[in-house]
Amino acid sequence: MEKFEVRFKESLGRISEVLENVKQLLNFSEKDIEILKVRKDLLKSWSNEIIEDFYANLLKSEKAREIIEKNNIDLNKLKEANKRWYEQIASGNVDEKFFRYSFYVGLLHIYYDVDNHLMILMADVLKRKFLKLCLETFDEEEAFEVYQSFSKVVSAFVGITVEGYIFMLKEALLDILGMKPELVNRLLKMELEQAVQHFRKKLV
Asked: Could you read off the pLDDT of 168-180 as tens digits, one per residue?
């Protein structure tokens, strides 16, 4: 289990790196958390409507339905878990532990074969529903202020989840291959250089 402890420590560094980028590139700060906190009761009251809309859209995807059915996932429990996640954001309860959890979600997505594009698209579905409710509830200026704070948190969560997905998948493959990371990285670079040249001719 020692190797997983090493990876866990490495993951903490990656989480910190992503969060630093979120602060710099999205201008995420304590002000955003406070904007959500002062409206938490109202925002949490939207949770059932938001989650039902989320899953109504998610289940349009054949791949999503297959994952749920193949793994005998209880849809009601899944909805409850996502409801708690939404309410945590809506309450402004987005500390370091919250963002660490997103790295774990990336690992779960590998295990259940959830495609990154599906998660990214569904994050957009979630944000658009939240924006719709904001515009129906607040004046325009306040609506966009609340939406932006919520959107920053969701974007950070998604970014760290993708980072966790790529990091853990790469590390698992290195273990399976039994090769030194430096050698694998060199071979991967050579393979990608050829792929870039080929795809450039086809797509650019």
From this structure: 777 777 777 777 7
